[in-house]
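Each letter names a residue; the fold follows as tokens. Both lines appear below:
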Amino acid sequence: MKNMPEAGSSLFRKKGFFIALYSCLGVVAVLALVVTVLNSPTTNDGTSIAYELEQTLPVGADQVDSYLAGLDEDAWFRPRQQPEQPPTPPPATEPPQQPQRPMTPPPTSPTLPPADPGTQPTGETAEPPTPEATPSPTPSPESTEETPLPTPQVATFAPFADGDRMIWPVYGETVMAFSTTALIYDPTLDQFRTNDNLRIAASEGDAVRAGADGRVLSVGRNVRQGNYVVIDHGNGWVATYGQLMENPLVAEGEIVRQGQVIGGVGQPSIFGTENGTHVHLRIEKDEVAINPYYVLVERGTQ
């Protein structure tokens, strides 16, 4: 019986264990409070939240003793009972789905046969016939389309043909004949030479006429022919009318008619001064000089 510990000493040992345990817990709580004060935010009035907790946290040995006095010592060594779990509610069941009803098309009114125009249906009000829309008059093409302007007709002329005759540009004597095969004397150059044109004497200012219908190819001046007009008479026939006055009466591209005045006799150029006032007439067929006597009408017949 001597080795049995006394009940008072056993109780003291248990109380000493709990005192040490709760003292450690108190120290840990104080350290946690200090850390919380340093890092905790403040309330709206500027008071630290940790300070408010410190005012309400009970810490001290006397409080620990009072707490241990009412504590069941054996409760620390009994297994902790698990709280009863509330019964699990049964899974909710989905309400049975209603069978979908097939969509029924809206009822359509029965098609009535067309009423006889000579009879009036009884018991029903006949609807007046819908007037047909009057089609708008379609504008005629003449009112919508602009009337095209008439295309200007290109002036034409009857081309000169082989066997036709030209009239003389002026009435006068020949002052220098046409000669491409034999040499003739040229008084202006004072030498014998060939001549590819016919020089017809005339007075200054006399009218010079076109030998046949044609189109004016060019109007110009050079030292040999003076002021000149070149006319295309068609079919390769071209005539040059030189030694004219300044400002001829026709322009390039103009259509002229046989006998039309194309200018007047002017002063001769330096290559024809000794021939006096005259008309220089050169006629070509396919760019080859032709003796004007072959195509000019006989004197006195024009």
